[in-house]
C-alpha cells in the first residue's frame, strides 16, 4: 500500500511545486497593485504593508475601463457565436456528405489553418479598407470569425466519435438536415461547443495584435489596448500597468475556472469512440 502511495505523493509534490512556480507571476502582479510605486521598487515580492487602493482609483478615473470592457465583451460574444455556428454547421455538413468537393475543401482548410495570421495582416488590412471596416468593432468580429476553422476541426473530431446511426435513423424518420442539426447534433455536441467556446474566448479577450492593428479610435479600444497605453516610449507606468493587467485578467480567470470541468469533459468525451 505504501509502495503504491509513494508515486502519488511524489506526483502531488511535483504538481504543487509547478503550480507555485506558475503562480509567482500572478502573485507579483496582484500584490503590487496594492502598493505605492516606491514600495513596489523597494520590495516587489513582499506583501503590501496596507491595503492601498490608490492605483485602482487612479486607473478607473483616468482610463475608460467601462467602455473598453463593453467593447471587448461585445466583440468576444458575437465572435464566439459566429464561430460556433459556422464551425458546427461546417463539421456536420462535411461529415454527412463525404463528396470529392468536400474533401478538397477540407484539405484547403487544413492548408489555411497552417498559415500564421501575422503573414496575412497586410492583405487582410487592404480588404477591410475596401469594405470600410477598418477601425470598427464589426471589422474585428469579422476577423475573429476566421477562427471558425479551428472550431470546425475540433467539432468534426468530436462528431466522428458519435455513432452515425443516430443521424441515419433520424433521416429515415423523415427529419431534414436542419432538423437533424438543430434537434440532434447541437444537443449531442454541447460539451465540445463549450470547450471550443472557452478556448476562443480566452484568445479573443487577450488578443493584442488584431485590435492594435485595426483599431485607432480611443472609444473603440479593447481592454488589452488600455494595458498597452501604460507602456510609454521612455518608461513604463508600472502601477497603472499592473493594475490594468489585473482588471483584464480577473474576468477571464473566473470564466476559465468556472468552465474548467466542461473543458475536461468535452475533450475526454471526444477522445473516445462512442
TrEMBL record:
Keyword Transmembrane applies: yes
Give one Pfam family, short name only: BPD_transp_1
Q: How does it sit in the membrane?
A: Multi-pass membrane protein
Cross-referenced PANTHER family, in alphabetical order?
ABC TRANSPORTER PERMEASE PROTEIN MG189-RELATED-RELATED (PTHR43744), SN-GLYCEROL-3-PHOSPHATE TRANSPORT SYSTEM PERMEASE PROTEIN UGPE (PTHR43744:SF8)
Q: What cellular-component terms does GO give this entry?
A: plasma membrane
Keywords from UniProt, A to Z, are:
Cell membrane, Membrane, Transmembrane, Transmembrane helix, Transport
Organism of origin is Nonomuraea solani
The protein here is known as Raffinose/stachyose/melibiose transport system permease protein
Q: Which GO terms describe its biological process?
A: transmembrane transport
| TM region positions | 9-30, 73-95, 107-128, 140-159, 180-205, 238-259
Q: Which InterPro entries would you find in this protein's record?
A: MetI-like (IPR000515), MetI-like_sf (IPR035906)
Give start and end of each ABC transmembrane type-1 domain.
69-259
Cellular localisation = Cell membrane
What does the sequence similarity comment in the record state about its family? Belongs to the binding-protein-dependent transport system permease family.
